[in-house]
Specification:
Helix content is 40%, strand content 16%. With 366 residues, it is α/β, with parallel strands linked by helices. The chain has a domain at 70-314 and 322-328: Rossmann fold, CATH 3.40.50. The longest helix is centred in the N-terminal third of the chain and has 17 residues, at 10-26.
């Protein structure tokens, strides 16, 4: 697409790379890395695809954080979805959830055993399936960050208008700002700055990050996914560090506005409330999730079908949790590209098209 060409210009990227080198020299401290974490799966894939790490000085480290919604979904959620399917409920889901391992098996295995598991390309497909199967219960697996919450909740608005009684959602909604808080305070990792997600920021707006930046004085910069955008974002972060002026910067103003998408936010406020959500690899983060309010329990699959989302038991040999926290790179997991591959994934970081392990396997595997 021609309007994106300027954001993929090789010459521009090389010039920005030179500026990054100058800034990194100013910030150089022997045996110390400057750790910049991106908290977005699309950034993770773009950084690997365009070999951005190879354009950076050795003292600049890009760390992939918990930016993949499939990856951070707890094992117990998959177990609950499988339990619903085995009760005879029609499960509707985006395709990348099919192969995410639960404690004992995946939804794909469940489907091979005769359970009804339908892949959707939009939440609206779940509405269509519910209308065609009016005597069957239909559950949509509603996971994700603020970006995917909006269409999921909009689906409930449509179901209400159509008076559909046989559809509900199993929620595992996560919020990005509380995750930044948890990561910045984790003693196991040392984050110097955050490259903030583009899609999420378009929904929550610039204002959502202000309390975090004001409290922790950590540079936060919102950037898009094109290579020049990412390079400019890294340059902007390094400039903040060099100036000792940590602040919030929006370099994606062509899409991300200060107040975000207020229509989506109104839907959230109508249907959802905060709770302490569990993140794979990180654990429970206070007020980091959204769940349906009690007055909408008829849309809540957990309440409607008496299914509890308990803490699951992930494969102990899989180090997906450590990858999500930025403690290790995917290649440091002993299962990476051996027992764990996209065709035979052991953990969700290899399953999802936005997972860190999938990105490393596709673009960085040697």
């Amino acid at each position: 697409m021609k309007y994106l060409d300027e954001y993929k210009n090789q010459g521009a990227a090389e010039q920005i790379s030179k500026q990054i080198k100058l800034l990194s020299d100013k910030l150089y401290v022997k045996d110390k890395k400057i750790n910049i974490m991106e908290v977005c799966g699309s950034h993770t894939m773009a950084i690997a695809r365009y070999a951005i790490r190879e354009l950076l000085p050795e003292n600049i480290s890009l760390i992939s954080g918990p930016g993949c919604p499939v990856c951070v979904t707890d094992t117990g959620y998959i177990d609950a979805a499988i339990e619903l399917a085995e009760k005879g409920v029609i499960i509707t889901t985006f395709g990348d959830m099919i192969n995410v391992p639960g404690t004992k098996k995946t939804l794909a295995i469940c489907r091979s055993e005769g359970c009804k598991v339908e892949i959707c390309y939009s939440p609206l497909n779940a509405i269509e399936i519910a209308e065609k199967n009016i005597n069957k219960e239909v559950v949509f697996l509603a996971i994700g960050f603020e970006t995917t919450m909006a269409p999921n909740i909009a689906m409930l608005e449509i179901a209400s208008k159509k008076n559909l009684k046989n559809i509900s959602i199993l929620t595992a909604f996560k919020l990005i700002p509380p995750a930044l808080e948890a990561l910045s305070m984790d003693p196991e990792i040392s984050i110097d700055a955050f490259l903030c997600p583009a899609h999420v920021s378009a929904i929550i707006g610039v204002k959502a990050y202000e309390p975090f930046v004001q409290k922790h004085k950590i540079p936060c910069l919102i950037a898009s996914f094109e290579p020049v955008d990412i390079m400019l974002g890294i340059q902007g972060i390094l400039q903040q560090l060099a100036d000792k002026d940590p602040h919030l910067e929006n370099q994606y103003a062509r899409v991300v506005k200060y107040n975000g998408n207020e229509i989506a936010q109104q839907l959230f406020n109508k249907y959802l409330e905060e709770y302490d959500a569990s993140w794979r690899g990180i654990g429970k983060i206070p007020k980091s999730g959204l769940k349906l309010k009690k007055e909408f329990a008829y849309f809540d699959a957990s309440a409607k079908h008496d299914v509890k989302i308990a803490v699951g038991k992930p494969n102990k040999a899989c180090r997906c949790g450590d990858v999500l926290k930025g403690k290790i790179n995917p290649s440091e997991c002993p299962m990476f590209a051996k027992k764990c591959t996209p065709m035979n994934p052991v953990g969700p970081c290899m399953v999802s098209s936005e997972g860190s392990c999938a990105a490393y396997y596709k673009y960085l595997r040697k």
